[in-house]
Amino acid sequence: MNRIEALAQKEKLSREKVFRDPVHDYIHIQDQMILDLIDTKEFQRLRRIKQLGTSSYTFHGAEHSRFNHSLGVYEITRRIVDKFARSYASQDPYDGLWQTQERMLVLCAALLHDIGHGPFSHTFEQIFHTDHEALTQAIITSPETEINRVLRRFGDEFPLKVASVINKTYENKQVVQLISSQLDADRMDYLLRDAYYAGVSYGTFDITRILRVIRPFNKQIAFDFSGMHAVEDYIISRYQMYMQVYFHPVSRGMEEVLQSLLARAKHCYLNHPDKMKTPIGLLEPFLMNKWQLQDYLSLDDTILSSYFTHWLREDDAILADLAYRFLNRKSFKSILTNNDEKNQLEIALRNELFKAGFDPKYYLSENSSFDLPYDYYRPNHSNSKIQIELVTKTGQVVELSQVSALVHSLAGKTNGDHRLYFPRELFEFLYQIPADQLNEDQRMILVAHANERNDVTHIQQRLF
Ligand code: NI
Prior knowledge:
The chain is globular. The N and C termini lie far apart (about 50 Å). It has 25 helices and nine strands. It is an alpha+beta fold. Bound molecules: nickel (II) ion.
């Protein structure tokens, strides 16, 4: 028994605590440290940050928080490592099985893997140059956080170890792969949870079966061959969730409105602060690009939303208009494009928006969203993935796409699309012009728009 394990034994709760969860029924807490991490202010803050950002403008049920998801990833990990301890505990250093003394480390990493997320992370990062992965590391390792203080009960090195699991540098690859790989506790939880709250069935798969067939093997994580269809179903679910939920054009249109709104706010406070009625307050350190960890931890969705409501009353017409659009779900409209046509179409839109009185800097944007549902290992490939491997009863290893025709058809193929976003008023303006009076730019925009609606081959192109 190593030191951490001995300390963890001493800290075991005399009575297990549970949190009721709509996806996993009960989340079981057996350790004082897990309970204390949940009770920190940095973790409680995740209650006020939505997991899916602007997706709830399309799927109104999807209002769940990063708090929910983090607990779910913890619970899936806990179920896996409990099973590993029962069935696959390592007996000697060379058997490639599960090292039971890693339990607390992997549970803490699972619980804290998203701790650095802020409000509307993706968009906020682009405007204010924050980085949620770096912030996750900082929150865990900085002596000024409550999380760090709790983790240090297991020794001064323990926070760094937890951080190294999350940034994938920890030496035991089994521990890393449980949190981040092509089939990990993080992805399993967000697919099930996002599907549940969005009210769609695409993301569902048989997690009970996956938790039965997952196993440590040869110092990696693998799956019993008999579970191939459950793993296959998970990959298909992932593919469909990206296409139907995560890449929904309206949610992305709202993300573009938000990005313009934050960019305009930054412009206004930096260029004519004297004309602003809303005090700059908690955003000041970010606008001045002089923020500290504690400034970041003061932000959440409710703080930003309150700014948006105040900005409605600002004299700056663009700022007030964008705030109105964001608060009232006036999403930007989009046209599907591709790499060949994108530049020309963008110029046409720019010209027409300018004529219609919209500043293209805030009212025209590109959104490209792509995902790779699964890939097998490719040596010499940048960003090569660890493939999903199945183990037969006789101990042979097979890569998933070799035996699943469905996964084979998705493997290595990126799906998604390029879209150009702008206010819907432009369409209203263009559709009023008689067809014989359209100029070349206007015709190009309308043809691109009609193509998307009428042409099946365009839809095919979008997906492959
Ligand atoms: Ni996550």
